[in-house]
Design a protein that fits this description.
By secondary structure, the chain is an all-alpha fold. It is built from eight helices and two strands. Helix 2 (39-50) packs parallel to helix 5, helix 2 packs parallel to helix 8 (151-166) and helix 3 (55-66) packs antiparallel against helix 5.
């Protein structure tokens, strides 16, 4: 590892983004069936900064929470959280980080923004799908409560992740 700046940077960013995604879970507004949090923002920011390597902190975040570390929203933990109504969103962080990261490897601002937006919507779609399966909620209700109400906030998170990442190395 000594002298390998890329590897050292990947390790440092991984630790930082696991911490930021965790902190983003504490910044939440209670809502039923899932709370509003800043976790998605930090997943998108990880993709914009770490590129495709952003899948590493996203996957480790999910694994750490499943193993019982209190990293999920408001300090909850365990496999039960992943099996509950919020599980789909959390699992969706992994493919979303990869999609955002691959898109942000492009030099085209339009592709970067489109990739971040796609990743954000993917988290919501994973969440809605899981919400239907885990709660038995009607698809229309799950779509409204699990996606539509989150779209304005996620649009802001997507824009913020893009703008902040533009100013980072």
């Amino acid at each position: 590892m000594f002298g390998d700046l890329r590897r050292s940077r990947r390790i440092a960013y991984t630790a930082a983004f696991i911490g930021l995604i965790t902190v983003g879970g504490w910044i939440s507004v209670p809502f039923v069936p899932t709370p509003f949090t800043l976790q998605t923002f930090f997943v998108l920011l990880a993709g914009a900064v770490m590129k495709r390597d952003a899948v590493i902190p996203a996957a480790l975040y999910v694994a750490l929470g499943a193993l019982g570390l209190p990293v999920f929203h408001n300090g909850v933990a365990g496999i039960g959280v992943l099996l509950g109504p919020t599980g789909g969103y959390i699992i969706g962080f992994i493919p979303a980080a990869l999609i955002a990261g691959i898109a942000c490897e492009s030099i085209s601002p339009a592709r970067r923004i489109a990739g971040l937006a796609t990743a954000s919507v993917l988290v919501l779609l994973c969440g809605v799908t899981w919400l239907i399966g885990s709660t038995g909620m009607a698809p229309a209700a799950a779509f409204f409560l699990g996606m539509i109400i989150f779209l304005p906030g996620d649009a802001v998170k997507t824009g913020a992740a893009y703008l902040i990442a533009r100013h980072l190395p």
